[in-house]
Amino acid sequence: MNSLSTITKLAGGWLQLKVPVPFSLRWVNSYLLPEKSGWTVIDPGLRSAETEAFWEAALLEAGIAWTSIERIVLTHHHPDHYGLAGWFQEKTGAPVYLSETGRRSALWMWGENETSSGELLAAFAAHGMPAEREEGMKGHLRNVIGQVLPHPRDVRPLPEPGETFEMAGTVWTLIGGEGHAPGHRSFYQPDLRRLICGDQVLPDITPNIGWMPGTDPDPLGSYLASLRAMLPLEADLAFPGHRDPFGELRTRIGEILAHHDERLDRMVSLLAEWGPMTAYETAGRLFRAKVMDDSHQLRFAMAETIAHLERLVLEDRAVRREETGADGKPVIRYGPAVPV
Ligand SMILES: [Zn+2]
Protein backbone atom coordinates (compact mmCIF):
# COMPACT_ATOMS: atom_id res chain seq x y z
CA MET A 1 0.00 0.00 0.00
CA ASN A 2 1.34 3.42 -0.89
CA SER A 3 1.07 5.40 2.31
CA LEU A 4 0.98 8.68 0.32
CA SER A 5 -2.67 8.04 -0.39
CA THR A 6 -3.44 7.88 3.31
CA ILE A 7 -2.35 11.43 4.18
CA THR A 8 -4.78 14.14 3.17
CA LYS A 9 -3.85 17.81 3.59
CA LEU A 10 -6.71 19.89 4.94
CA ALA A 11 -7.16 23.66 5.25
CA GLY A 12 -5.27 25.27 8.13
CA GLY A 13 -2.32 22.89 7.79
CA TRP A 14 -4.28 20.02 9.31
CA LEU A 15 -3.52 16.49 8.19
CA GLN A 16 -6.02 13.62 7.98
CA LEU A 17 -4.50 10.17 8.30
CA LYS A 18 -6.58 7.12 7.50
CA VAL A 19 -5.28 4.63 10.01
CA PRO A 20 -6.24 1.05 9.06
CA VAL A 21 -8.64 -0.94 11.24
CA PRO A 22 -9.12 -4.70 10.83
CA PHE A 23 -12.90 -4.63 10.56
CA SER A 24 -15.65 -3.23 8.37
CA LEU A 25 -15.10 0.42 9.36
CA ARG A 26 -12.05 0.32 7.03
CA TRP A 27 -10.16 3.14 8.69
CA VAL A 28 -10.20 5.52 11.63
CA ASN A 29 -9.29 9.14 11.07
CA SER A 30 -6.43 10.57 12.98
CA TYR A 31 -6.09 14.33 12.63
CA LEU A 32 -2.77 16.09 13.11
CA LEU A 33 -3.21 19.72 14.11
CA PRO A 34 -0.22 22.08 13.86
CA GLU A 35 0.82 23.87 17.04
CA LYS A 36 3.42 26.64 17.42
CA SER A 37 6.28 24.19 17.64
CA GLY A 38 4.81 20.76 17.14
CA TRP A 39 1.63 18.79 16.64
CA THR A 40 -1.49 17.63 18.42
CA VAL A 41 -2.60 14.13 17.41
CA ILE A 42 -6.28 13.31 17.67
CA ASP A 43 -7.30 9.62 17.98
CA PRO A 44 -4.20 7.69 16.85
CA GLY A 45 -6.00 4.38 16.14
CA LEU A 46 -5.91 0.84 17.51
CA ARG A 47 -2.68 -1.00 18.15
CA SER A 48 -1.44 -3.65 15.74
CA ALA A 49 1.74 -4.39 13.83
CA GLU A 50 0.05 -2.85 10.80
CA THR A 51 -0.85 0.44 12.50
CA GLU A 52 2.60 0.79 14.05
CA ALA A 53 4.16 0.39 10.60
CA PHE A 54 1.58 2.78 9.20
CA TRP A 55 2.53 5.54 11.64
CA GLU A 56 6.28 5.01 11.19
CA ALA A 57 5.84 5.42 7.43
CA ALA A 58 3.31 8.25 7.62
CA LEU A 59 5.35 10.46 9.96
CA LEU A 60 8.46 9.88 7.88
CA GLU A 61 6.57 10.86 4.77
CA ALA A 62 5.05 13.94 6.41
CA GLY A 63 8.46 14.96 7.79
CA ILE A 64 7.19 14.93 11.35
CA ALA A 65 9.53 13.76 14.12
CA TRP A 66 8.08 11.68 16.95
CA THR A 67 9.45 14.23 19.39
CA SER A 68 7.39 17.01 17.81
CA ILE A 69 4.14 15.32 18.86
CA GLU A 70 3.19 17.49 21.84
CA ARG A 71 0.01 15.79 22.94
CA ILE A 72 -2.47 13.10 22.13
CA VAL A 73 -6.16 13.97 22.36
CA LEU A 74 -8.84 11.28 22.41
CA THR A 75 -12.49 11.89 21.57
CA HIS A 76 -13.40 8.66 23.37
CA HIS A 77 -11.99 5.43 24.77
CA HIS A 78 -12.99 2.90 22.06
CA PRO A 79 -10.07 0.69 20.95
CA ASP A 80 -9.91 2.07 17.41
CA HIS A 81 -9.30 5.56 18.87
CA TYR A 82 -7.58 4.89 22.19
CA GLY A 83 -5.59 1.75 21.36
CA LEU A 84 -2.33 3.36 20.22
CA ALA A 85 -2.34 6.13 22.84
CA GLY A 86 0.02 4.31 25.21
CA TRP A 87 2.38 3.33 22.41
CA PHE A 88 2.36 6.93 21.17
CA GLN A 89 3.11 8.16 24.66
CA GLU A 90 6.09 5.80 24.92
CA LYS A 91 7.46 7.10 21.60
CA THR A 92 6.83 10.79 22.26
CA GLY A 93 6.53 11.38 26.00
CA ALA A 94 3.43 13.42 25.20
CA PRO A 95 0.48 13.57 27.60
CA VAL A 96 -2.81 11.94 26.65
CA TYR A 97 -6.01 13.95 27.09
CA LEU A 98 -9.25 12.02 27.59
CA SER A 99 -12.42 12.66 29.56
CA GLU A 100 -12.30 11.25 33.08
CA THR A 101 -15.27 9.01 32.27
CA GLY A 102 -13.45 7.75 29.18
CA ARG A 103 -10.32 6.99 31.21
CA ARG A 104 -12.31 5.04 33.78
CA SER A 105 -14.22 3.17 31.06
CA ALA A 106 -10.98 2.09 29.37
CA LEU A 107 -9.63 0.63 32.61
CA TRP A 108 -12.97 -1.00 33.47
CA MET A 109 -12.99 -2.71 30.09
CA TRP A 110 -9.31 -3.53 29.57
CA GLY A 111 -7.50 -2.82 32.82
CA GLU A 112 -5.49 -5.49 34.61
CA ASN A 113 -8.37 -6.56 36.84
CA GLU A 114 -11.15 -5.93 34.38
CA THR A 115 -14.53 -7.42 35.22
CA SER A 116 -16.44 -6.11 32.24
CA SER A 117 -16.01 -9.09 29.90
CA GLY A 118 -17.54 -11.54 32.42
CA GLU A 119 -20.40 -9.12 33.02
CA LEU A 120 -20.93 -8.70 29.28
CA LEU A 121 -20.97 -12.46 28.61
CA ALA A 122 -23.46 -13.05 31.44
CA ALA A 123 -25.67 -10.25 30.17
CA PHE A 124 -25.58 -11.52 26.57
CA ALA A 125 -26.47 -15.02 27.81
CA ALA A 126 -29.49 -13.58 29.65
CA HIS A 127 -30.36 -11.73 26.44
CA GLY A 128 -30.51 -15.05 24.58
CA MET A 129 -27.06 -15.49 23.08
CA PRO A 130 -26.62 -19.28 22.76
CA ALA A 131 -23.94 -20.90 24.91
CA GLU A 132 -22.02 -22.10 21.83
CA ARG A 133 -21.34 -18.45 20.89
CA GLU A 134 -19.61 -17.75 24.20
CA GLU A 135 -16.14 -18.97 23.21
CA GLY A 136 -16.12 -16.84 20.07
CA MET A 137 -17.25 -13.80 22.05
CA LYS A 138 -14.53 -14.44 24.67
CA GLY A 139 -11.96 -14.63 21.89
CA HIS A 140 -13.17 -11.33 20.46
CA LEU A 141 -12.94 -9.64 23.88
CA ARG A 142 -9.44 -11.03 24.52
CA ASN A 143 -8.38 -9.84 21.09
CA VAL A 144 -9.44 -6.28 21.91
CA ILE A 145 -7.16 -6.16 24.95
CA GLY A 146 -4.17 -6.73 22.67
CA GLN A 147 -5.26 -3.72 20.61
CA VAL A 148 -5.19 -1.24 23.50
CA LEU A 149 -1.99 -2.02 25.41
CA PRO A 150 0.00 -0.49 26.89
CA HIS A 151 -2.40 1.87 28.61
CA PRO A 152 -1.08 5.43 28.66
CA ARG A 153 0.30 6.42 32.08
CA ASP A 154 0.09 10.18 31.87
CA VAL A 155 -3.61 10.76 31.20
CA ARG A 156 -4.99 14.24 31.82
CA PRO A 157 -8.72 14.93 31.97
CA LEU A 158 -10.31 16.84 29.15
CA PRO A 159 -12.51 19.71 30.34
CA GLU A 160 -16.22 19.20 30.92
CA PRO A 161 -18.79 19.92 28.20
CA GLY A 162 -19.22 23.67 27.74
CA GLU A 163 -15.68 24.38 28.90
CA THR A 164 -12.84 25.22 26.54
CA PHE A 165 -9.60 23.67 25.32
CA GLU A 166 -6.85 25.17 23.18
CA MET A 167 -5.68 23.38 20.06
CA ALA A 168 -4.18 24.49 16.76
CA GLY A 169 -3.76 28.05 18.03
CA THR A 170 -7.42 28.57 18.82
CA VAL A 171 -10.01 27.94 21.53
CA TRP A 172 -12.46 25.04 21.19
CA THR A 173 -15.65 24.42 23.12
CA LEU A 174 -16.14 20.89 24.40
CA ILE A 175 -19.38 19.26 23.35
CA GLY A 176 -20.53 16.31 25.43
CA GLY A 177 -21.88 13.19 23.80
CA GLU A 178 -23.35 10.07 25.36
CA GLY A 179 -24.80 6.85 24.02
CA HIS A 180 -21.98 5.83 21.68
CA ALA A 181 -19.29 5.96 24.35
CA PRO A 182 -19.55 7.32 27.90
CA GLY A 183 -17.76 10.65 28.24
CA HIS A 184 -17.37 11.18 24.48
CA ARG A 185 -16.14 14.68 23.62
CA SER A 186 -16.46 16.66 20.41
CA PHE A 187 -14.65 19.96 19.81
CA TYR A 188 -16.41 22.97 18.32
CA GLN A 189 -14.84 26.17 17.01
CA PRO A 190 -17.56 28.72 16.09
CA ASP A 191 -15.26 31.17 14.22
CA LEU A 192 -13.68 28.46 12.08
CA ARG A 193 -17.11 26.80 11.95
CA ARG A 194 -15.43 23.45 12.45
CA LEU A 195 -16.45 20.50 14.57
CA ILE A 196 -14.19 17.57 15.44
CA CYS A 197 -16.91 15.06 16.21
CA GLY A 198 -15.26 11.69 16.87
CA ASP A 199 -17.86 8.95 16.43
CA GLN A 200 -20.82 10.98 17.71
CA VAL A 201 -21.86 11.94 14.17
CA LEU A 202 -20.61 9.96 11.17
CA PRO A 203 -21.39 10.35 7.47
CA ASP A 204 -22.73 7.31 5.55
CA ILE A 205 -22.77 5.02 8.60
CA THR A 206 -24.65 5.34 11.87
CA PRO A 207 -22.59 5.24 15.07
CA ASN A 208 -23.11 2.10 17.13
CA ILE A 209 -25.15 2.58 20.28
CA GLY A 210 -22.91 1.21 22.96
CA TRP A 211 -25.02 -0.70 25.46
CA MET A 212 -22.90 -2.31 28.21
CA PRO A 213 -24.15 -3.92 31.43
CA GLY A 214 -23.84 -1.75 34.52
CA THR A 215 -23.44 1.49 32.60
CA ASP A 216 -26.02 3.84 31.07
CA PRO A 217 -29.29 1.84 31.09
CA ASP A 218 -30.69 3.93 28.23
CA PRO A 219 -27.81 4.65 25.85
CA LEU A 220 -30.11 5.25 22.88
CA GLY A 221 -32.09 7.87 24.79
CA SER A 222 -28.82 9.51 25.85
CA TYR A 223 -27.51 9.37 22.30
CA LEU A 224 -30.61 10.95 20.77
CA ALA A 225 -30.58 13.71 23.41
CA SER A 226 -26.86 14.38 22.75
CA LEU A 227 -27.51 14.55 19.01
CA ARG A 228 -30.43 16.95 19.37
CA ALA A 229 -28.26 19.18 21.56
CA MET A 230 -25.80 19.43 18.64
CA LEU A 231 -28.41 20.74 16.20
CA PRO A 232 -27.77 24.45 16.96
CA LEU A 233 -24.04 24.16 16.15
CA GLU A 234 -23.01 26.24 13.14
CA ALA A 235 -20.40 24.05 11.48
CA ASP A 236 -19.43 24.17 7.82
CA LEU A 237 -17.17 21.19 8.20
CA ALA A 238 -17.31 18.26 10.56
CA PHE A 239 -14.28 16.00 11.07
CA PRO A 240 -15.53 12.52 11.96
CA GLY A 241 -13.75 9.48 13.36
CA HIS A 242 -14.60 7.42 10.28
CA ARG A 243 -15.14 8.21 6.59
CA ASP A 244 -14.25 11.71 5.33
CA PRO A 245 -14.89 15.25 6.61
CA PHE A 246 -18.37 16.40 5.64
CA GLY A 247 -20.57 19.50 5.47
CA GLU A 248 -24.30 19.66 6.23
CA LEU A 249 -23.92 18.63 9.85
CA ARG A 250 -27.52 19.46 10.66
CA THR A 251 -28.83 17.39 7.74
CA ARG A 252 -26.75 14.43 8.83
CA ILE A 253 -27.96 14.69 12.42
CA GLY A 254 -31.54 14.71 11.10
CA GLU A 255 -30.86 11.57 9.06
CA ILE A 256 -29.44 9.73 12.06
CA LEU A 257 -32.39 10.76 14.25
CA ALA A 258 -34.76 9.50 11.53
CA HIS A 259 -32.81 6.22 11.23
CA HIS A 260 -33.34 5.46 14.91
CA ASP A 261 -37.04 6.38 14.72
CA GLU A 262 -37.42 3.94 11.84
CA ARG A 263 -35.50 1.23 13.65
CA LEU A 264 -37.65 1.64 16.77
CA ASP A 265 -40.80 1.37 14.61
CA ARG A 266 -39.41 -1.71 12.90
CA MET A 267 -38.79 -3.36 16.27
CA VAL A 268 -42.33 -2.61 17.40
CA SER A 269 -43.56 -4.34 14.21
CA LEU A 270 -41.27 -7.33 14.79
CA LEU A 271 -42.53 -7.76 18.35
CA ALA A 272 -46.12 -7.49 17.13
CA GLU A 273 -45.44 -10.07 14.43
CA TRP A 274 -43.38 -12.61 16.39
CA GLY A 275 -44.40 -12.04 20.00
CA PRO A 276 -41.96 -11.99 22.93
CA MET A 277 -38.32 -12.47 21.90
CA THR A 278 -34.88 -12.18 23.41
CA ALA A 279 -32.58 -9.46 22.14
CA TYR A 280 -30.57 -12.18 20.34
CA GLU A 281 -33.67 -13.39 18.50
CA THR A 282 -34.65 -9.82 17.68
CA ALA A 283 -31.14 -9.09 16.35
CA GLY A 284 -31.39 -12.21 14.18
CA ARG A 285 -34.46 -10.74 12.50
CA LEU A 286 -32.84 -7.31 12.05
CA PHE A 287 -29.31 -8.13 10.94
CA ARG A 288 -27.93 -10.28 8.15
CA ALA A 289 -26.55 -13.74 8.90
CA LYS A 290 -23.08 -12.44 8.05
CA VAL A 291 -23.32 -10.01 10.97
CA MET A 292 -24.78 -12.56 13.38
CA ASP A 293 -22.12 -15.18 12.54
CA ASP A 294 -19.15 -12.94 13.33
CA SER A 295 -18.38 -12.47 17.05
CA HIS A 296 -17.11 -8.92 16.63
CA GLN A 297 -20.16 -7.82 14.66
CA LEU A 298 -22.54 -9.83 16.85
CA ARG A 299 -21.35 -7.89 19.87
CA PHE A 300 -22.31 -4.59 18.24
CA ALA A 301 -25.58 -5.99 16.88
CA MET A 302 -26.52 -7.17 20.39
CA ALA A 303 -25.59 -3.83 21.99
CA GLU A 304 -27.55 -1.95 19.36
CA THR A 305 -30.60 -4.20 19.69
CA ILE A 306 -30.70 -4.13 23.49
CA ALA A 307 -30.36 -0.32 23.43
CA HIS A 308 -33.36 0.00 21.10
CA LEU A 309 -35.49 -2.50 23.02
CA GLU A 310 -34.74 -0.76 26.32
CA ARG A 311 -35.76 2.58 24.78
CA LEU A 312 -39.04 1.01 23.63
CA VAL A 313 -39.68 -0.22 27.18
CA LEU A 314 -39.10 3.31 28.51
CA GLU A 315 -41.49 4.67 25.87
CA ASP A 316 -44.12 2.07 26.89
CA ARG A 317 -43.99 0.61 23.39
CA ALA A 318 -42.62 -2.75 24.59
CA VAL A 319 -42.45 -4.73 27.80
CA ARG A 320 -39.46 -6.51 29.32
CA ARG A 321 -40.00 -9.81 31.13
CA GLU A 322 -37.31 -11.43 33.21
CA GLU A 323 -37.91 -15.15 33.43
CA THR A 324 -36.01 -18.28 34.43
CA GLY A 325 -34.85 -20.43 31.54
CA ALA A 326 -34.90 -24.24 31.35
CA ASP A 327 -31.32 -24.25 32.69
CA GLY A 328 -32.35 -22.21 35.75
CA LYS A 329 -30.53 -19.11 34.46
CA PRO A 330 -32.24 -15.76 33.91
CA VAL A 331 -33.60 -14.95 30.47
CA ILE A 332 -34.88 -11.57 29.34
CA ARG A 333 -37.60 -11.32 26.71
CA TYR A 334 -39.19 -8.28 25.16
CA GLY A 335 -42.77 -8.34 24.02
CA PRO A 336 -45.30 -6.00 22.49
CA ALA A 337 -46.76 -3.39 24.84
CA VAL A 338 -50.25 -4.73 24.21
CA PRO A 339 -50.13 -8.53 24.57
CA VAL A 340 -51.10 -10.29 21.37
ZN1 LIG B 1 -16.36 4.66 18.86
From TrEMBL:
Q: Name one GO molecular function term.
A: hydrolase activity
Q: Which UniProt keywords apply?
A: Hydrolase
Q: Which reaction does it catalyse?
A: 3',5'-cyclic UMP + H2O = UMP + H(+); 3',5'-cyclic CMP + H2O = CMP + H(+)
Transmembrane spans:
none
Q: Where is the Metallo-beta-lactamase domain?
A: 27-242
- What PANTHER family does the record point to? ENDORIBONUCLEASE LACTB2, METALLO-BETA-LACTAMASE SUPERFAMILY POTEIN
What is known about what this protein does? Counteracts the endogenous Pycsar antiviral defense system. Phosphodiesterase that enables metal-dependent hydrolysis of host cyclic nucleotide Pycsar defense signals such as cCMP and cUMP.
Name it. Answer: MBL fold metallo-hydrolase
